[in-house]
Amino acid sequence: MGNVLAKEHAGAVSEPDGAGRSCASARIGGAPPGSTLESTVTVTRPRILSGLGRPQRFAPRPIVLLALVSCLYGLAQLLLVSPRLGLGWDEAVYASQFSSHAPPAVFSAPRAQGVPLLVAPVVALTDSVLVLRLYLTVVSSLALFGAFSVWLRIRPGRLVPVAALLYGSSWLSLFYGNQAMPNGYTALAAVAAVGFLLLGERSRLAPVGLAGSLAVMSLMRPSDALVAAVPLVVTALVGLRGRRIVTLSAIAVGLAVGWGQWAIEAQLRFGGFVTRLKDAGEHNSTGWNVSIVEHARALDGPTLCRFGAECGAVSPVALTWWLAIPVMTALGLWSAGRRRHLFPIALAAVTGLAMALPYLFYVDYAAPRFLMPAYALLSLPIAEAVVTGVRLRRPVAAVVIVGLVAHVALQGAYAFRMAVVSHRDREAIDAAVQELRRMGVRPPCMIYGQSGVQIGYHLRCHSHGIIQRFASRPPLRIQQALERKEQVVIVYKNRRLPSYVMTWREADLPGPWKARFPG
Fold first, then answer.
1. CA neighbor of 176 nearest in space, from 372, 426, 410
2. What is the tens place of the pLDDT at every residue in 255-312?
3. Is 39 left (phi over 0), alpha (psi -120 to 50) or beta?
């Protein structure tokens, strides 16, 4: 194929003399016509012609554009979301699992080991949040480039860089890019998995990439990987003519990595696979639910609509952006159908829709990051619509370009606002940590209360966090810590205290925080 493409390229730029050059004849020494001294000098003036007869303009290769988008993605994270942003609850849980300076926090049944393994090389060496953020900025930028670069062999051209730009500029991708959270990596692994499946009959290494992508996805969020595998398996059974068994085997291997680890951990720490599965369902409030309205209310934040969090009303601007997604997806599918490359774009759209359905109809609360895999996959048909629209007449192209700029500006503003709010809250936690450290809180210790996981991680203590309320009786872990004569500290800011700590010594911490120590 390489030789054929080379010949086609050579044929495209070679022109006969009349088209590719101009000739001029000059008689040397002014000899008359027909003289033996007559000589003809041919002067060649090369011209570079495009297929339409116009001079060619320099156009960066798609892989260069994709690399540029990935670099800008990392830069935007550093500018919009400070690399000094403190750790969130989930991040502290994940970071503590392989940390060299803090004991592991309680690891609940729904969680998986993908993120702890991702951050292990950093947290095993240092407790610096700045180093962790910079590391994750680099990793997420490389992941964006790697996932979408798979599609350059499927849809060469500017569609792939545009799709990466659409997804990378969303506030969810920007806000969570350098955070120790699984959803962004699940999303990019899904993009790569669909691409490797489509390359299964053209590349011998594609099944390896497919297995690796699903392994990453299943280590990050096993349930998401299982849902994504359904349209991939159906496609392999119906759409592939050759290497079907190899492709199905790759899917099975990828799922086995994450689910196998989850099952082994369930047996060792959670009383068995079925027990852990049941506990995970109860923790996530699963069952037939319709949470579309909750997701609509959370389009511009907060990060979680649960445990009494005020999600606010639906933003008309954010809702308009959300409703534009299915419209642009449909236009992209229509355009792909006209250009006779519908199948790859349709598979991406179907897989993205499949990964969104459980969170819209099966989980009884909303967290915007749950839909990141759907947004990543739908960016491909939307990019198809954008690229097609830019090529149309000027009014249509102008509308498309304005819409693209509006998307980038709106989502960037949301990311900045979420970063400001989170930075303020986590700075208050850091100030409370510094004061507790000054007051002499040292290991062995147990931190119990609001944001107890983050505070415990930074103080190198065991932790027991609460979200809604304190237990009416001391939890078993708190009783055991007291019996071991460990230093137990209750931390809180706006929660009603249980009766068993009312006699404990109270201390004010910076901001709204307070602490209680056993007498």
1. 372
2. 999 999 999 999 999 999 999 999 999 988 888 989 999 999 999 989 998 877 778 8
3. beta
- At 35 the pLDDT is 42
What is the model's pTM?
Answer: 0.87
CA distance linking residue 470 with residue 464, whole number of Å? 10
Average pLDDT for residues 378-404, to the nearest whole number?
Answer: 95
Q: Long-range contacts: 252-257, Cβ < 8 Å, 24+?
A: 253/211, 253/214, 253/215, 254/193, 254/210, 254/211, 254/212, 254/213, 254/214, 254/215, 254/217, 254/218, 254/225, 254/229, 255/214, 255/218, 255/225, 255/226, 255/229, 256/218, 257/214, 257/215, 257/218, 257/219
Length of the chain (residues): 519
Q: Which residues are CB-contacts of 356 (< 8 A; sequence separation ≥ 6)?
A: 371, 373, 374
For residues 129 and 115, give the distance between their C-alpha atoms in angstroms, rounded to a whole number: 15
Q: Tell me which residue of 320, 276, 281, 318 sits closest to 297, measured CA to CA.
A: 318
Q: What is the pLDDT of residue 440?
A: 95
List, in sequence order, every residue forming a beta bridge with 492; answer none if it has no partner: 514
Hey, what's the torsion of the CAs at 95, 97, 103, 109, to 10 degrees? Answer: 110
Amino acid in the structure at residue 337: G
Kindly list the strands in the beta sheet with 445-450, ordered across the sheet, starting from the edge strand earlier in the chain. Answer: 462-466, 445-450, 487-492, 514-517, 505-508
Distance CA 81, CA 466 (A): 26
CA triple 110-115-119, angle to 5 deg? 150
Instruction: Write out the two tokens for 338.
Output: 């006209």
Percent of the chain's residues with pLDDT above 90: 80
Which DSSP string corresponds to 367-383?
-GGGGHHHHHHHHHHHH
Cα separation, 371 vs 367, whole angstroms: 8
The pLDDT, as a whole number, for residue 54 is 43
Residues 6+ apart with CB under 8 A from 214: 189, 193, 225, 228, 229, 250, 251, 253, 254, 255, 257, 258
